[in-house]
Amino acid sequence: MTSKNPGSDPAPRPKRRSFSPEYKLRIVAEYDAAPKNEKGAILRRERLYHSHVKEWRAARDAGALENLVDRRTSPAREKKSAAEAENEKLRRRVERLEKELAQNKAALEVMGKASALLEMISGGAD
């Protein structure tokens, strides 16, 4: 009987699928030749988005299909460190508080003008 170690590494994730230029050309040709009502079926069958086909068609027309980097294989954005994430969170909070402060200052000005008017009115009525 084997038991899993709680600290052991999980199974490695499979690599993302890469599209060859030949595959891209075939899909673009198939998509362009298909009637309008079959285009969605092609995208679903191949699990692609319409923007992939548009991007591949533009690259094919420019003769640069081989140089086109797949979105699925493009390098992921670097993750922020915990300190950078915390700094970003604090920066957004400071911006929100500064905005609230500006709104409160404007409200105090209006209240000050209103109280001055009330004093003038009440002082003139006596």
From TrEMBL:
SUPFAM superfamilies found in the cross-reference section: Homeodomain-like
Superkingdom of origin: Bacteria
Protein name stated in the entry: Transposase
InterPro entries: Homeodomain-like_sf
Coiled-coil parts of chain: 80-114
Spans annotated as Disordered: 1-20
Key words of the record: Coiled coil
